[in-house]
Amino acid sequence: MGMNTDGRDLELSLLRTFLAVVRYGSMSRTATAVAKTQPAVSQQMLRLEKITGQKLLHRDPHGVKLTGHGELLVTYATQAINLNEEVLARLRKKPISRRSRYRQHQS
Fold first, then answer.
1. Which helix (H) or strand (E) holds 45?
2. Mean pLDDT value of segment 52-75
3. Measured on CA atoms in the order 13, 106, 56, 69, is the torsion positive or negative?
4. What does each C-alpha distance from 68 to 46, 95, 105 come to in angstroms?
5. pTM of the predicted model as reported, rounded to 2 decimal places
6. Could you say which of 1.10.10.10, 3.40.50.300, 3.40.190.10, 3.40.50.2300 is the CATH number of the domain covering 12-95?
7. Cβ atoms 90, 4 nearer than 8 A
8. Which of the residues 15, 16, 32, 64 has the least number of beta carbons within 10 Å of its own beta carbon?
C-alpha cells in the first residue's frame, strides 16, 4: 500500500461535517447544528470536494442533495467515523456505545 504524501488525506472533521450536511439537508441548518458559520461549513465541503476531486453535493436554494459520488462517500465516511470511534474505545479500554455510532444515511 502506497503512502499519500500530497497532503490530501481525508480528514475526519471534514467527514463529520459532510455527514452532518447530509443529515440536516442544508448548509445553514448544519451550521446551526454544529455551531459553525454557514460559510465555514460551505468551505469545508468545498475543501472535501477538492480533496476527493469530485462534486459531492448539488446545492440549490432549498438545500443540498447528494451526487452519485456523495452517496458513495456517505458509506465510506460512516465506516471511517465508526472505525475511529471503535479504535479509540479499544485503545482507551472503554465499551463501544452503539448509540454513539453514526448511522448510514437512508433516503
1. helix 38-52
2. 96
3. positive
4. 16, 35, 13
5. 0.80
6. 1.10.10.10
7. no
8. 32
